[in-house]
Design brief:
The chain is an alpha+beta fold. About 25% of the residues lie in helices and about 15% in strands. The protein contains two helices and seven strands. The strands form three sheets. A three-stranded antiparallel beta sheet has the order 1-6-7. Strands 2-5 form a two-stranded antiparallel ribbon. Strand 6 and strand 7 form a beta hairpin. The chain starts with 11 loop residues before the first strand and ends in a 24-residue tail after the last helix.
Length: about 110
């Protein structure tokens, strides 16, 4: 099967605006539609973000040295990947951290550094 985590930041497809749903819209039993959060991340290596699992995104982040996403929601991880790609293309070296929209709680670094 397809693996996203061995792709590079260069292989992330992004759009100029946050127009890509991170998951399929779902409808509750009462008929209310839960719209997916939207981010600029369209896909990784040609695979749509909608079909990528959160674990795929986490592994992609750890492989590409994107930090601080351990407890993040899928949409937040997508934002972090977009920002890391921007930083990467701007010539900034890894690690990429503090990229997510403001979250509640202190930043926990995975590797205790």
């Amino acid at each position: 099967g397809f693996v996203a985590f061995n792709k590079s930041l260069e292989e992330c497809q992004t759009t100029p605006d946050a127009s890509n749903p991170v998951k399929k819209d779902t409808t509750t039993k009462t008929g209310k539609v839960n719209l997916s959060p939207m981010t600029p991340l369209k896909g990784i290596g040609g695979q749509s973000v909608q079909v990528l699992k959160i674990d795929d995104l986490r592994m992609f982040c750890s492989r590409n040295d994107i930090k601080g996403i351990r407890k993040a929601k899928k949409a937040d991880i997508c934002w972090a990947i977009c920002k890391a790609k921007e930083a990467y293309l701007a010539g900034q070296p890894a690690p990429y951290k503090d990229l997510m929209p403001a979250s509640d709680g202190p930043e926990v670094d995975d590797n205790g550094s």
